Every structure is written in structure tokens, then in C-alpha cells.
Amino acid sequence: MAKVKVHVFLKNGVLDVQGKAVEGALKGLGWNVENARVGKLIEFDFDGADPAGEAKKMCETLLANTVIESYRIEVA
Amino acid sequence: MAKVKVHVFLKNGVLDVQGKAVEGALKGLGWNVENARVGKLIEFDFDGADPAGEAKKMCETLLANTVIESYRIEVA
């Protein structure tokens, strides 16, 4: 059983409205924050061979919208 | 300028409907996946003293709903 973490985030150049909102709110509260980006972190236990390769397939088919999103996979 | 990563996730015991949906969908596609959880990963550059302490304050005031969510802070 492998612990898999998948980080899905908008590609550079795609406007991250959630990130902009967070940045604006933090600035409004007095913090000097730049380049805020909000992504998703999906964690699960995977039972099977080649967790990294299977996680890549999961991202391509379901977890990420590869038109606008990138992903990073960590297997522990 | 410190790079700060904040991982916000639902506390254990709080039903994670997004995680359940991901788990069900991956199972439906033939992957043997358990305990899927979906969280948020907020990344930003912070200019100021004590980034870890300030990030903790940001979480308490804005980034996390501490009634149902926990957070983990990484400063690089």
C-alpha cells in the first residue's frame, strides 16, 4: 500500500482567481504577500504495482484538467 | 522574500465529500484506492520577518476554517 500525494495547480500564465483573492485579502489584512497561488492536494492510499505510473494515468484521465492544470506526484 | 506553502485539509472525522467523490471515481475506473482526501495548497511569497509565525496567523484569521480544518506550514 503506497501513500500517494498529487498536487494539482493551474499552469503559469493561467489566471488564478482564487490565488488573487487570497493575495488581496492577505494584503488587506496588512501582510506583504506576492504571487499567491491556490492548488489542490489529493492524497490517497494506492494498492497495486507502479504507484507513480498509475498516479500519472489518474491525473491524465481524471484528477487534472491538463489543458489548464499541471500536476506533481509524490509517492511515499 | 520567503516562499511559504500552506496545506489546508479537513480534520480527521470530518466527512470529506470531495475525497469520497475522487475515491469513487478512481475505483470506478478500476484503481484500488483508499482513504482519498482532497485539500488545498496555498503558495505565496512573503516579505517580512518570521514567515512561519505570520503564516500561522494568516491561517488562523483567513486561510483555514479551524473549526473543521487543520493546516501545515512549510517555509522554504
From TrEMBL, chains A, B:
* Primary site of residence: cytoplasm
| Enzyme Commission number(s) from the entry | 6.3.5.3
Q: A GO molecular-function term, please?
A: phosphoribosylformylglycinamidine synthase activity
Protein name from the UniProt record: Phosphoribosylformylglycinamidine synthase subunit PurS
Cellular location(s): Cytoplasm
Recorded family membership: Belongs to the PurS family.
Family matches, as HAMAP family: PurS
| Name of the gene this protein is made from | purS
Family matches, as Pfam families: PurS (PF02700)
Q: What does this protein do?
A: Part of the phosphoribosylformylglycinamidine synthase complex involved in the purines biosynthetic pathway. Catalyzes the ATP-dependent conversion of formylglycinamide ribonucleotide (FGAR) and glutamine to yield formylglycinamidine ribonucleotide (FGAM) and glutamate. The FGAM synthase complex is composed of three subunits. PurQ produces an ammonia molecule by converting glutamine to glutamate. PurL transfers the ammonia molecule to FGAR to form FGAM in an ATP-dependent manner.
Task: Please list the reactions this protein catalyses.
Answer: N(2)-formyl-N(1)-(5-phospho-beta-D-ribosyl)glycinamide + L-glutamine + ATP + H2O = 2-formamido-N(1)-(5-O-phospho-beta-D-ribosyl)acetamidine + L-glutamate + ADP + phosphate + H(+)
Its pathway is:
Purine metabolism; IMP biosynthesis via de novo pathway; 5-amino-1-(5-phospho-D-ribosyl)imidazole from N(2)-formyl-N(1)-(5-phospho-D-ribosyl)glycinamide: step 1/2
Does this UniProt record's set of keywords contain S-adenosyl-L-methionine?
A: no
Quote the subunit structure annotation.
Part of the FGAM synthase complex composed of 1 PurL, 1 PurQ and 2 PurS subunits.
Q: Which UniProt keywords apply?
A: ATP-binding, Cytoplasm, Ligase, Nucleotide-binding, Purine biosynthesis
**Gene3D superfamilies the UniProt entry points to:** Phosphoribosylformylglycinamidine synthase subunit PurS (3.30.1280.10)
Q: Which PANTHER family match?
A: PHOSPHORIBOSYLFORMYLGLYCINAMIDINE SYNTHASE SUBUNIT PURS
